[in-house]
Amino acid sequence: MKIEEVKHPELKNHINMIYMHGENQNEEAIVKTENEIKEYIKDKEFIISTDNGKATKIPYANDGEYLVPIFTDEHEYTMGMQYFSFNVMDENKSYIIEKLDYCKKLKEDPNFLGYIVNIARVSYIINITLI
User: Fold this and answer.
1) 90, 106, 78: which is closest to 6 by C-alpha?
2) Do 40 and 115 form a contact (C-beta atoms < 8 A)?
């Protein structure tokens, strides 16, 4: 698959709905939408940021926890690379297009918190309970 073929408008819509439900404090709708996200991501391929051939790790807090950035489409990837360059994190970055289970060994790491979707915009964390 080529990068320009990766498109996930449905996931973007789910993420927007999560934020809307959060503003309305509708926990039931949030849980329902998270379950829809869980089903959606099972067999889809995403653009996964890599660093020297391994999934890029973005530190989260000061105790070794981290997130792995993924992108829903080519435009979001381009925006993410600009974000990395603004934060002097763009060195050695590349990408692969794979299903999220490509990084399944990360799930065994207690410091892995999940995937951060579209890091340069209003992003969303797919935590390990959804993977």
Assistant:
1) 78
2) no
CA 119 to chain centre: 7
- In the chain, the amino acid numbered 39 is E
59 is written with which tokens? Answer: 């530190």
CB atoms within 10 A of CB 3: 13
SS3 78: helix
Taking a C-beta distance cutoff of 8 angstroms, is the pair 115, 126 a contact?
Answer: yes
Backbone phi, psi, residue 122, to 5° = -60, 105
Instruction: State pLDDT tens for residues 81-120.
Output: 888 777 656 666 778 898 888 777 888 889 999 999 998 8
pTM: 0.86
Q: Structural domain tally of the chain?
A: 1
Query: In what helix (H) or strand (E) does residue 48 lie, and over which residues does it extend?
Result: strand 45-51
